[in-house]
């Protein structure tokens, strides 16, 4: 048997091909069938079938492509790789949501500060109006007002005018005049009181939404850390799964090579020995390729993790910038080493309550409605807790 030089195209004898002799070629003796082909057939039906991974297209064990050029679906889904992909997507969604959430919460903080300043000014103004009304009504009831303009002495003198006005006199007010004057002075106080009540109510709602926003930011940071922990765990499990598969293949191939070597020693026919030697060399080449593949998997993993470390550091910097920007100044400890959060924590501390940037609405506050947990976040946390990959 001629051994090809291309490692990607190394032929692997199939059970059917090995057990059926062509009409014009007789390289395998009856004795070799019993000594050599039996263990090889066992290997091919066991480890070889197990090792046919659709995601390893360079493998001599890889499944053939379908007519449309796409590889057949793997017999066993790579759940760890899928979990890593989902974790990366959740981490990116968390960072993106945190950017908008921090900006919106900052805007609410500024809005609340303006409202509180306006409320303080309205309270001060109302106190002034109430004091002015009390003094004015005291002068009015004592008859200290102009009969012509119906203004009090205090008011007229404050404008630099003469009291009473020329041609007018000081008279005692009637009960009707007192009531009208009281209503006149009370009107701006009532208007200011209504505006003050509206602003106070608005401030309570704004404060509630703002506080929820700050809490959501903390949940968002936790969910990001959870996503990082999940991604790391999934990457490690994915590597270990590949290494375990390759190790199983190595053991089976080594056993097959040993069986062929035993058949060589037992054979007395030169032609049969030459054929067995060619087969053994072919399997030794396959063995070397699997060892190289094992080292390549480790190297690829290290490269991927190095790339992810840079991504984690960048995301961590961005989150720290979001939370420190403007008036927010949140003292949130984003995991310095970006190691993520362990699956042993309860869902609350894993960030299950993060709503991916959705803030409370004013109608939510008015109706005392608290939004439900986001289904995709809940499912992600459950999957991480189970670590079923």
UniProtKB/TrEMBL annotation:
Keywords of the record: Coiled coil
Give coiled-coil spans as residue ranges: 105-132, 236-311
Give the superkingdom in one word. Answer: Bacteria
What is the name of this protein?
Answer: Uncharacterized protein
Query: What is the scientific name of the source organism?
Result: Undibacterium nitidum
């Amino acid at each position: 048997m001629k051994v090809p030089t291309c490692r990607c195209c190394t032929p692997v004898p199939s059970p059917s091909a090995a057990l059926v002799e062509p009409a014009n070629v007789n390289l395998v003796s009856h004795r070799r069938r019993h000594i050599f082909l039996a263990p090889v057939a066992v290997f091919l039906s066991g480890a070889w079938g197990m090792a046919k991974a659709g995601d390893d297209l360079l493998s001599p064990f890889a499944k053939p492509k379908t007519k449309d050029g796409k590889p057949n679906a793997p017999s066993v889904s790579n759940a760890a790789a899928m979990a890593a992909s989902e974790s990366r997507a959740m981490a990116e969604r968390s960072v993106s949501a945190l950017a908008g959430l921090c900006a919106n919460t900052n805007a609410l903080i500024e809005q609340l500060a303006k409202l509180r300043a306006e409320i303080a000014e309205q309270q001060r103004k109302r106190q002034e109006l109430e004091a002015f009304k009390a003094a004015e009504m005291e002068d009015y009831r004592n008859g200290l007002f102009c009969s012509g303009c119906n203004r009090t002495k205090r008011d007229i003198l404050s404008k630099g005018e003469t009291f009473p006005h020329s041609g007018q006199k000081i008279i005692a007010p009637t009960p009707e005049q007192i009531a009208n004057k009281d209503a006149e002075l009370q009107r701006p106080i009532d208007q200011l009181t209504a505006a003050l009540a509206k602003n106070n109510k608005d401030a309570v709602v704004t404060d509630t939404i703002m506080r929820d926003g700050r809490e959501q930011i903390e949940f968002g940071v936790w969910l990001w850390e959870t996503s990082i922990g999940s991604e790391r765990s999934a990457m490690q499990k994915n590597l270990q799964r590949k290494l375990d598969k390759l190790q199983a293949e190595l053991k089976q191939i080594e056993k097959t090579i040993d069986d062929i070597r035993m058949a060589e020693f037992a054979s007395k026919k030169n032609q049969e020995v030459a054929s067995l030697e060619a087969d053994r060399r072919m399997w030794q080449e396959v063995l070397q390729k699997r060892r190289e593949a094992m080292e390549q998997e480790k190297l690829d993993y290290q490269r991927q993790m190095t790339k992810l470390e840079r991504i984690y550091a960048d995301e961590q910097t961005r989150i720290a910038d979001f939370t420190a920007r403007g008036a927010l100044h949140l003292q949130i400890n984003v995991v310095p080493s970006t190691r993520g959060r362990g699956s042993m924590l309860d869902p609350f501390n894993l960030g299950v309550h993060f709503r991916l940037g959705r803030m409370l609405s004013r109608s939510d506050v008015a109706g005392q409605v608290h939004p439900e947990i986001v289904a995709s976040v809940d499912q992600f946390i459950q999957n991480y807790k189970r670590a079923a990959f």
